[in-house]
Amino acid sequence: MNFSDLSNIPVIIIMGASLVVLVSQDWRSFIIAIAIQYLGVFLLTATVWPLGLAAIKLIVGWIAGSVIGASQPNFHQQEDAFLGPSGSLFRVLAAGMMWLLVFSMAPILMNWFPAGLRIMWGGLILIGMGLLQLGISTYTMRVVVGLLTVLAGFEIIYAAVETSVLVAGLLALVNLGLALTGIYLLGSTRESET
Amino acid sequence: MSAPFLFIGLPLIVAILLWYYPQNRIHAFLAAGFFCLGMMVFASVAPIDRGFALGPLSIPLPSVFIIFGRRFILAANSRTFLMLIFFFSSAWFFAACLTHAQRTFAAVGIAVVSLLIAATAVEPFLYSSLLIETAVLFTVPLLAPLSKKPRKGILRYLIFQTLAVPFILLAGWASSEVEINPTNEPLILQTVVFLGLGFAIWLAVFPFYTWAPMLAGETYPLLAGFVFSIFPLVVFNNLLDYLNTYGWLWNNAMLITSLQISGVIMVASAGLWAAFEKNLARMLGYAFILENGFSLLAISAARDSDLKLFAFLILPRMIGFLFWSLALSLLKESNSLELDKLSGLFRSKPTYAIMIVICCLSIGGFPLLAGFPVQSALLAKIAQQSVTVAGISLLGSVGMLVAGFRMMAIFVNNNSEEWIFSENRISMIVLGVGLLLLIGLGLFPQLFSASMTNLLQAFGKIAGI
Predict the structure, then answer these.
(1) Domain ends where: B123, B149, B170?
(2) Is B69–A166 a contact, with Cβ atoms under 8 angstroms apart?
(3) What value does the mean pLDDT of chain A take?
(4) Considering CB atoms only, which of A174, A189, A192 is closest to B130?
(5) What is the overall mean pLDDT for chain B?
(6) Quick check: A150 and B163 CB within 8 A?
(7) What average pLDDT does range A26-38 have in this prediction?
(8) Using a CB-CB distance cutoff of 8 angstroms, which residues of chain B are in contact with residue A184?
(9) pLDDT for B388-445, tens place per residue?
(10) Which residues in chain A have their CB less than 8 angstroms from residue B152's CB?
(11) B123, B151, B183: which is the final residue of a domain?
């Protein structure tokens, strides 16, 4: 199957899923959106990597998402500064501005990386959305997911320049390590509250 | 058996064992301390690349270990680095015996040291960032114990250290491209930008340093001190290794100027904030920024001469952080670390009070203390290149000294004339040794200069020795 023919679809998937991850205040849709986001990462990576190697991104992303989701069934966000409809509207507007920035910057950044336009779009959108998560929330779960999102975006772009299996493996290890660290920190939050 | 297996693999195995045994925390710290001390002694005598001769038997000890096609290299020129990291790790583990640090510090600490050594040994360079990130993830449970809700400092530490990884990986890729096409100016600029950003985030360069004082204020001081001492040692080692490997970077004026500007901003701002800081633990965070700034200045000043001053900065820094964080940990057991609440500390805990003040003054470069000879030499050297840069850096040192004198004024300020000693005798002896070391290094800075110069052997192209 030639994934490069479908490379607009993963960008749309990534845009939608990362927006839901940013806005969602319901843990089920949050976790499902993370899973879909990694599907987009996989589809984009598969345009430049062999299918088997690209599948690592999907599997690792799903494991990380499910591990975080399983550890946090009571998704409460008292610490978030942007709650309610106005908060959601703010996040959507911020995401929209981020997309505008990405679509205008991607062609320029293509001079820096030998990667296709869609790869740049997908990668930069995830990096931008991850940075937004990190910037507007101090909630541990969102911080960890934000970091995973930034790394996922970077991995898409990096896949276009580096095909080392060992780097892919170590990055997978870092992703899983981050998810486990996130669970630990979430556990600390619960432990201190009881 | 190879040197990387012995110095990386063996500590990892010991770390796994220490996770389970012994259950007593003091025994665990002693075991970890003696193991690291043993590794330090072994590192000093190990016949790397020559092998052991046991009668008719000869056991080779190659410096290279290959796994999945990647090489881990610990050659004879890494000896001083290994001795230094194992010695100070053992010192931290022994110091932990006197404090209430959690038992897991023994196992996790050794695992972190092992990963950091692996990060310096791995080739190609880009893998080191992933190993350092793994070490960072290992330190999170140490810095944020389960009983405490994680606060902003630990989250920022995790965020910044993780965000450095992509930049270092991209710098590794870009520099390998420059090797193929050395005349590609935009690619060189790209490499400098990636490398600069990656190391800036790792080393808490301005403006990425907000996490350092926050983390120091939130966590157990001894553990914060461990992170503030061991990580920069490895990250600076990697930076120099990188500059040594890619000579064109060392000759890039923009990178060296960036290092100098970053260094001077870090020194000046850290000193300034420290002068107004009201929490003793957070002050440790500013000291970390100040020391990193001085190290950057030493590297930037070295292009025209040698890296000796960079190497000489290490020992005062490590000793200062060890005893400062130990004294703060001991103090924290019965006192708040807020300066306002420590009035008259000198009359109840004189050794702790003296040690905290002396460490702060040493890091600020007060005459006759460990930090003075090297800082004054560095400032003199910078002044030859730019009086403005030297002047601003001096302001940072003065800020740290003001912090030290402010502490002293509060510690001795008490209406009561009664002395109520409440210090542990062993702690007093240990801190006394630290005091002698800091004064001794200030009076006889040449004592360890030859050993520290050996550290630069690994960077033959840029060391200038």
Answers:
(1) B123
(2) yes
(3) 87
(4) A174
(5) 91
(6) yes
(7) 90
(8) 140-141, 144, 146
(9) 999 999 999 999 999 999 999 999 987 777 778 778 889 999 999 999 999 999 999 8
(10) 138
(11) B123
Top residue of B122, B162, B215 to mutate, by most chain A CBs within 10 Å, is: B162
Cβ-based contacts of B145 with chain A (< 8 Å): 188
Assess if residue B234 is contained within a domain: no
Mean pLDDT for the stretch of residues B204-220: 92
Is B204:B212 a contact under the CB 8 Å cutoff?
yes
- pLDDT tens, B153-171? 999 999 999 999 999 999 9
Helix (H, G, I), strand (E, B) or coil at B279: strand
B180 inside domain = no
Candidate from B70, B146, B170 with C-beta closest to A166: B70
Within a domain: residue B162?
no
Q: Determine, for residues B147 and A192 on separate chains, whether the beta-carbon distance falls below 8 Å.
A: yes
Instruction: State how far the Cα of B118 lies from the Cα of B245, in Å rounded to an integer.
Output: 18
Q: Which residues does chain A have within 8 Å of residue B147's beta carbon, measured at their own beta carbons?
A: 188, 191-192
Same domain flag for B307 and B414:
yes
Domain membership flag for residue B133: no
What pLDDT sits at residue A82? 67
User: Backbone phi, then psi, for B72, in 5-degree steps?
Assistant: -110, 120
pLDDT in tens, B288-317: 999 999 999 999 998 777 889 999 999 999
Is the domain of B100 the same as that of B246? no
Please tell me which of the candidates B148, B162, B163 has its beta carbon nearest to residue A192: B148
* More confident of the two residues B465 and B414: B414
Please give the structure tokens belonging to residue A159: 């896949």
On the CB side of A43, how many CA atoms lie within 13 Å of its CA?
Answer: 20
* Residue-range definition of the domain harbouring residue B72: 1-123
Size of interface A-B (CB pairs under 8 A): 88
Give this prediction's pTM: 0.92
Across the interface, whether the CB atoms of B149 and A188 are under 8 A apart is answered yes
- B350-371: average pLDDT: 95
**CB-based contact B429:B300 (threshold 8 Å):** no
pLDDT at A77 over 60: no
Do the beta carbons of residue A3 and residue A58 sit within 8 Å? Answer: no
Q: What is the pLDDT of residues B220-230, one digit of tens each?
A: 999 999 999 99
Confidence bin at B246 (pLDDT 50/70/90) = confident
**Nearest beta carbon to residue A143 from set B131, B155, B170:** B155
Helices (H), B46-184: 79-97, 104-121, 127-143, 152-180
**Residue B102 in contact with partner chain A when CB distance is under 8 A:** no
Complex confidence, ipTM? 0.91
Distance of CA B227 to the CA centre of its chain: 7
- DSSP code string of A25-60: -SHHHHHHHHHHHHHHHHHHHTTTS-HHHHHHHHHH
Number of domains in chain B: 2
Kindly state the average pLDDT of the residues A86-105.
Answer: 92
CA–CA min distance B321, chain A (Å):
27
8 Å CB contact of B149 and A167: no
DSSP run (H or E) holding B365? none
Q: How far apart are CA B269 and CA A40, in angstroms?
A: 43
- Chain A residues with CB under 8 Å of B131 CB are 170
Closest CB to B155: pick one of A112, A138, A167. Answer: A138
* pLDDT at position B268 over 80: yes
pLDDT at position A39 is: 95
Residue in A closest to B171 by C-alpha:
A158
**Torsion angle, alpha carbons of B29, B35, B36, B39, to 10:** 180
Question: Which residues of chain B have a CB within 8 Å of the CB of A180?
Answer: 137
One domain, residues B313 and B458: yes
